[in-house]
């Protein structure tokens, strides 16, 4: 049995609960939820392997992330470092075999990114499943993974950050933990002994509003009020722009009767500036054609051949841009809640700024609100056109990484 050192009380609880046979029989699932960087993923993943190797032999298990890539990055790579010297680990494709002495087990990697992912794990017989970032996986995938755990003594293990209080995992598993035989351990950053005060301070500064409550305080908080309460004109609006920019790009939220919003962005000294914008309300002024919108973008670009990020549903306008060949065009990443969180982080960090001439964007920041009482967490579909185009920019360019090309 691996000797556990340097862990917090809650981490030790997760790492060792199954050692006692009575405790092992008491629970069918383990859920560790709470703040980011709170040490829950390390505790859950290490304990999952220790438990599997202690209690099973020649058995299949599943380790699941939002994608297989996220699974490798967040779970497998750190886990292999922790297991070094304790087990023999061999990896082939999306599977690793863990062995010690004559005992060995197989751990398969899966991504639960959409409703179709459930088919990937269907048909397996598992001794247990580890679901990392479970709150952002489709319910169908999680329930299919749970159904695969049919070996005697099988358990379900989850680590996750909180979402809204109406989330099905919170309502049906965390609030009913005793009824469902769930060991629920709630983490904060104070439960991770490896974090320095400087690192904790940096993470506290990354989030604001509902995301601060969820990712720093670890609360299953309702999204309410303004979507971007951290937006402050004194902090985020500038009267003077840098003299030159290393890169430029345009983002667009397309509309015919609804407003058409486009912004020109420039990067300077690690910050992105919304230099100027074009905002047109077809319902108030009469609709414009795709050709007219294209000419407006050329004017916004200043005749430079820039890349334009466009809502992927605007097929006719994307085709219009391609046919003219005067601008490059890319379909935007348009995940709403992920994009809102990423834009919130950029605003909190002061890495995204707006020239005072971008009046419609500044106006929408003060009006863009969460929908109240909806079955699904979402912002209201009003005063959201500049907000969508800003979100497309952040999600596609700032968080697009190497996958995004400026040419």
UniProtKB/TrEMBL annotation:
Superkingdom of source: Bacteria
Residue intervals passing through the bilayer: none
Family matches, as Pfam families: Terminase_6N
Name the record gives this protein: PBSX family phage terminase large subunit
Organism of this sequence: Candidatus Faecivivens stercoravium
Xref: InterPro entries: P-loop_NTPase, Phage_terminase_lsu, Viral_DNA_packaging_terminase
